[in-house]
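Newbie here. two chains, one complex. Structure please?
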Amino acid sequence: MESASIAAGHSDHDDHHGPPAANVSSRVEAQFLGMLLFIISEVMLFGAFFTAYFFIRVVAGSGWFPIDDVDLPKAIAGVNTAILISSSFTMHWALEGARNENRNALRVGLLTTALLGLSFLTIQINEYVHIGFAPSDNAQGTIFYSLTGLHGAHVFVGLTLLTFATVRAFRGHFTAKEHRGVEVPGIYWHFVDVMWIVVYSSVYLL
Amino acid sequence: MLNPLRSEQEAFRFLLYVIVVAAVVLGIVFAARALT
């Protein structure tokens, strides 16, 4: 009898009132669980890099920049931080557009977010070119490039997701009820922004 | 309770909280450095 109800649950989800299907949890939504596990793994990845950073700076007492009169470009990185935070606001604006069936806000918001993210990456690459030290020069240089590079790689992934979402938005996809293709990149983009605030505060300012 | 993984709106609100907390922590550290 129970197996019949499970089978019925597979064929018609809307009218299903019995126990959950055998392969589906009744407590956690699959998409939410996937996002949760992904973000936890990301936090652990960044945690490993931050552990190395704090070891070099605090435990080993190796000191921090400026080293040999070479300092980190705090002002340029500050402008870059403002650009990235702005991009989270435009991302939120795009999502509000999707929720309110405002297609222009969705399209312009996504496009602006992608352009701001691209500006962030371009400025960071330019920073690497002119910064005056290499990852192999000392431990401080290694962890600086590792942390900011790890974050830059995440920005690149976020930009890729945003590009797909933007192209889909211009093709007329997404409605007020169905916009998961923008929602998930939006959560990811805010996560990348949060991580940058932690990186900028600890590496550049403190 | 705020859950930044549930929706973009909550993730955005979480980001705003992080900005405020980071600003407060930086303010305290800079003030402590200036006083010592």
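Moderator note: Residues 30-205 of chain A form a domain with the Four Helix Bundle (Hemerythrin (Met), subunit A) fold (CATH 1.20.120.80). Helices of chain A lie at 2-11, 30-59, 74-99, 103-130, 139-170, 180-205. Thread marked as resolved.
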